[in-house]
Amino acid sequence: MVRSAVLAFMLILGAADGAPAQETGLCVPGASVGVLYGGDYYAATVLEGPAPDGTCLVTYEGYPSTWDEWVSPARLRVQAAGDLRGAVQETPESVPEGRYNCYRFGDDGPQYIYMDLVIGPGSRYSFVDREGRFKLRDNGEIQFGGPMAEAKASLEMMLTGTAQINLKVDLWADEPLRCSLAP
């Protein structure tokens, strides 16, 4: 209650949007914050904190709970109008061609997997030593043919404009790979 009052007081005094968390006491459950991730700020809500090490558990607006993470106060700011409000735009009509860098979440956050999914012309794919064709369904589901016929995948277009493929393959049945289109 005291922290919420302090936060409200600081906001009344004019703490500017974008002020660092350590100056505003943002690590308060229920606080709406912007979280720095990959060079951009994303809209999030603080779930727990602060922990003894000063970190806060946040959940990102529009993202599943698998994206929840403990973040340092240095990555938090007062939520600004420019912070992204959600994760996903409408599903595009085709899968953008290019190299998709893949990673997955483990107990300690993102784990980068040094495997790329390549989407080529003519609805062709290449992943590790597997190649074939795919179809994009209206709901964003990707149906692979050939050696990846058993894989489950979906296409999302992030608000940042980046295409992301969520790929569930036999190697990582517990957690999907998230493959983002490389710049």
User: What is the terminal separation in angstroms?
Assistant: 45 Å
Q: What spatial order of strands do you see in the largest sheet?
A: 6-7-8-9-10-11-12-13
Which range does the strand content fall in?
A: 35-45%
Which shape, going by the Cα principal axes? elongated
Q: Which percent range fits the helix content?
A: under 10%
Radius of gyration over alpha carbons?
Answer: 19 Å
Q: CATH class of the largest domain, please?
A: Mainly Beta
Secondary-structure arrangement, i.e. CATH architecture of the largest domain: Beta Barrel
Flag low-confidence runs.
Answer: 1-24
Helix/strand-derived category reads: mainly beta
| H/E element order | HHEEEEEEEEEEEEE
Mean pLDDT: 76
Helical stretch count? Answer: 2
Q: For the report, how would you describe the main beta sheet? A: 8 strands, antiparallel, barrel
Query: Can you tell me the number of structural domains?
Result: 2
CATH topology of the largest domain: Lipocalin
Number of strands: 13
Descriptive notes:
The structure is a single chain. This protein is mainly beta and 183 residues long. It has two domains: 2-78, SH3 type barrels, CATH 2.30.30; 98-181, Lipocalin. Helix content is 8%, strand content 43%. It has helices spanning 2-12, 21-24; strands at residues 32-37, 40-48, 56-60, 69-71, 76-78, 98-106, 109-120, 124-127, 130-136, 141-144, 152-157, 163-168, 177-181. The strands form two sheets. It has an eight-stranded antiparallel β-barrel with strand order 6-7-8-9-10-11-12-13. It has a five-stranded antiparallel β-sheet with strand order 4-3-2-1-5. A hairpin with a 2-residue loop joins β6 (98-106) and β7 (109-120). The longest helix is centred in the N-terminal third of the chain and has 11 residues, at 2-12. The chain starts with a helix and ends with a strand.
